[in-house]
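## retry 2 of 3
previous attempt timed out at serialization; input unchanged, resubmitting
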Amino acid sequence: MLIDTAEIIVRGGYGGSGMAKKPKGPDGGNGGNGGDVYIKCSSNLYLLKQFGQKFLFMAGNGGIGARNNKTGKEGEDIEILLPVGTSIYEKKTGELIMELSKVGERVLICKGGNGGFGGLTSELGGRGEEKKLILSLRLIADFGLIGLPNVGKSSLLNEITNAQAKVANYPFTTLEPNLGVFEGKCLADIPGLIEGASAGKGLGIAFLKHIEKVEVLLHCISCETQNVLKDYQTVRYELSEFKPELTKKPEVILLTKTDLADSSCVLKLIKELKKVNKKVIPVSIHNYQNLEALKKVIRNI
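## retry succeeded, writing output
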């Protein structure tokens, strides 16, 4: 199951205390610095699952100073892996701290405390930084399959890519975004949107946010529809209500399940849809030529 939000606390290690000089003894050393906390970006989209069991992450504390001016041991750094596409917010202020967009990037999120000075007197080590964070994952994909429930998005994803999304003939089979790759391009199957989704109805806005970073929308509309333009406008309205800029993304309409309608009906539906978008592709998972035409479009965009 894909988890796309989490809250965690991260804390740098405490600095170690310095050691005081003993009468007629050698000077004491400084305490070691506390460990730092780093965030590292990974391609694994399921990493937010780890925070269901653990939410507090602390770096190691610095060691105390030793005799003969020996500095205490440095605290151990820790590294937290997060999925690419994660936005990190400061919980208290809501401020965006960073967005992870490049796999492999490593960023300091909390610095450890400084070690205390030793010598004639001993000084306590400093506290490490502590932050309460909200993590929000938004999928980064080249193409997003969107549309009402049960219009064949998951079936298309499975046919075009190496995905193995669950498929069944009832609404809301897809309860989380699915990803597949076709010739190096990433496709995301976004769970079905319904009227009122932008206000939280159905699966609500939990999945609308995943459309934000998709480059091209593949808007799926089934040949089984009673009103093809109404279906189109319903989804477009929900996109605009959530974020108006989503409706400005490049869009291709996929008229799906064409094997369930006769050719005259398919042509009529295409004609209707071309009133709102000139790019309309009829497609069926049972029609090899249809699928090849769609693959060609994906290659060329």
